Amino acid sequence: MARRGHHLTEVALLASASGSLAAAGAGEREGWLDDPAVLLSLGPRARDLAVASAARSVLGIVPVAGGGGVTVKPALGPDDGRISAVEWVPLDAEGSQGEEGMTVVVGTDAGWLLFYSLAGDLLHKQSIYPAKILKLNFNERKENAWEDSGSDELSVVFPGVIARCDGADLQIMLQKSFQEVKSRMWKDKFEQEDDEDTSSFEKTPLQIWNVSKFGSCVDAAIVGLMPPPLLELQSSQRHYCAITVGEDAVVSAYRLSEDRSRSLVGAILSRGVAATFSTISSLSKILWRSEPSPTKKPRPKPQAFAKTSPLTCLKDSPRKGERLTLSPSGTLAAITDSLGRILLLDTRALVAVRLWKI
Length: 358
Prior knowledge:
- By secondary structure, this protein is α+β, with helices and mostly antiparallel strands.
- It folds into two domains: about 10-130 and about 165-200, Lipocalin (Beta Barrel); about 205-275 and about 300-358, no CATH class.
- Helix content is about 15%, strand content about 35%.
- The protein is built from four helices and 20 strands.
- It has helices spanning about 20-25, 165-180, 185-195, 265-290, and strands at about 40, 50-55, 60-65, 70, 85-90, 100-110, 110-115, 120-125, 135-140, 155-160, 160-165, 205-210, 215-225, 240-245, 250-255, 310-315, 320-325, 330-335, 340-345, 350-355.
- A four-stranded antiparallel sheet has the order 1-2-3-4.
- It is globular and about 55 Å long.
- The relative contact order is 0.09.
- The model is unreliable at about 5-10, about 190-195 and about 260-280 (pLDDT under 50).
């Protein structure tokens, strides 16, 4: 009988960065990676590993090929929540590696996003929506000569809500912040205000949609562009397709429109009312000469929902959707459910291709 050989492949060398891993709770007990409070994200080309601990409020950035890691302790106040998601975002479209090529974004269960450089510097902080961030996913769209496949994007998933940040806008903002931090022009300001004042950060444009028509979702993804409705006039506005999974509906599909259908009159009235209220408030302070009481700065109001059109859903009680994973091209989605099945979905035709039972 032939002797069976053992073939081993080195996947990662993390011993040199044991300090950053230990800060996230590595090695304290057997099976520490199974802790739901420990969040992992492997960088592009598997060169870096981000390890976040919600319980310890710590983010570790570890080079897989060896070398010292970086430990970041995000300055999260009581209203900022705890870490609930982590993802890698490239600083440029080419996705170059090294300190100047990648950033790590952390999401919290209070709806905040915090972007860090590989050196541990805070580049950006922004409130997206006051709910727990379930998942962050940066999708790099490949150029296609036959069709418009869209641009790179960062999607932020909440229970029943999904937001989208355009990759180009995000990268321009991060590059600007990175250069400011690198030149040390605002270093003192960052150290004093990163945990309290978010007004010093430029607000990143985004779109946000309500995708809870068929019930709250536990996972979701924007799978790409889709054509507008048949009876709708062609315009420059884009429409995206979103797939969600949840307890009420195993899988659902929505058309997401960039246009918020807000009239010009409504926009003028809203600005006029806000300006009038501000003037009255200023006059009342002058007349009454009241001393300004020290109040806590209010959280920025969430952006209004853009238009969402439900397309289809699959309800099969007691079956519940659990996880959703996209193929690199976004044309296929693997969906797991509570009955131990894996559904392979064609995201363009919105039909099931395969179904496996584990």
